[in-house]
């Protein structure tokens, strides 16, 4: 009986710890998503509206011209102004029909490439995804600010982390804050890199790709699942990975 009781207590404690860790990871993802939305809607470097008269920003009011610009410029990649190197994300901004709040008049979207919700197809390396939204104003003119909402899908996965690590390394090395960098990565699949499109992709059955900040030169091939210790340098405008 004592042994059974101890086993029961162990299972209960282990289950509670696992649930607590999962809840913390979900909270971290929600916090990251919320922070990205706030930066997008309130930073002059993102899509926030800045008055040319007062030179000030308006809380949670976005500029329709900036939305058009970002939708074209960042159709397949997260903008630098709100980049997360730990997660991947894509955002959709909807202008709401004032006569029918359930309908959208106009929609803009930008962020990570090939980014439908990966939880639906159970892709390899996927850990978690969360959607978060907030109300915004969409400014067309001084007298024309319309109701909208901004919704983000943020993903925690192996490819998002690997690509984020390489992009962060690229940015640090371009700014000459790093000369070299060593890192270990864990992957459930091999990686394929397309030089022409600058896409890093998984070779899993359900493939996922990321547009990279720098061209990559994989001297050390990552063609199967496993843990890899990488040494990275920035040479002639590309990341050389050994």
Keywords:
4-stranded mixed sheet, 242 residues, single chain, alpha+beta, 28% helix, disordered N terminus, globular, 6-stranded mixed sheet, 3 helices
Structure description:
- It is a single chain.
- With 242 residues, this protein is an alpha+beta fold.
- The protein has helices at residues 2-42, 64-73, 158-174, and strands at 48-50, 57-63, 88-97, 100-111, 126-141, 144-157, 180-187, 191-194, 199-202, 209-211, 216-218, 226-235, 238-241.
- The strands form 3 sheets. The chain has a 6-stranded mixed sheet with strand order 1-2-5-6-3-4. The chain has a 4-stranded mixed sheet with strand order 7-12-13-11, with helices on one face.
- Strand 9 and strand 10 (209-211) form a beta hairpin.
- The longest helix is centred in the first third of the chain and has 41 residues, at 2-42.
- The model is unreliable at 3-20 (pLDDT under 50).
Number of strands: 13
Total number of domains: 2
Strand content: 35-45%
Record the strand order, biggest sheet: 1-2-5-6-3-4
Q: Tell me the major beta sheet.
A: 6 strands, mixed
Q: How many helical elements?
A: 3
| H/E series | HEEHEEEEHEEEEEEE
What is the average of the pLDDT values? 86
Q: What's the alpha carbon Rg, rounded to whole Å?
A: 21 Å
Large-scale geometry: globular
Structural class, by secondary structure, is alpha+beta
pLDDT < 50 runs, ≥5 residues: 3-20
The rounded distance between the terminal residues' Cα atoms is 56 Å
Q: What is the helical fraction, as a range of percent?
A: 25-40%
């Amino acid at each position: 009986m004592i042994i059974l009781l101890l086993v029961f207590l162990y299972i209960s404690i282990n289950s509670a710890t696992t649930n607590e860790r999962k809840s913390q990871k979900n909270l971290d993802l929600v916090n990251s998503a919320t922070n990205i939305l706030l930066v997008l809607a309130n930073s002059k470097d993102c899509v926030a509206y800045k008055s040319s008269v007062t030179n000030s920003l308006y809380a949670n009011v976005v500029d329709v011209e900036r939305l058009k610009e970002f939708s074209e410029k960042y159709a397949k990649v997260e903008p630098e102004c709100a980049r997360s190197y730990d997660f991947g994300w894509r955002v959709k901004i909807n202008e709401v029909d004032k006569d029918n709040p359930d309908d959208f008049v106009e929609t803009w979207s930008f962020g990570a490439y090939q980014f439908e919700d990966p939880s639906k197809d159970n892709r390899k390396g996927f850990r978690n995804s969360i959607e978060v939204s907030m109300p915004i104003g969409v400014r067309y003119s001084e007298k024309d600010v319309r109701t909208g909402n901004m919704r983000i899908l943020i993903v925690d996965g192996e490819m998002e982390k690997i690509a984020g690590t390489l992009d962060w390394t690229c940015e640090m090395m371009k700014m000459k804050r790093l000369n070299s960098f060593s890192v270990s990565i864990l992957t459930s699949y091999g990686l394929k890199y397309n030089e022409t499109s600058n896409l890093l992709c998984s070779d899993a059955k359900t493939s996922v790709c990321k547009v990279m900040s720098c061209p990559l030169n994989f001297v050390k091939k990552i063609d199967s699942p496993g843990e890899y210790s990488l040494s990275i340098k920035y040479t002639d405008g590309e990341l050389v990975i050994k």
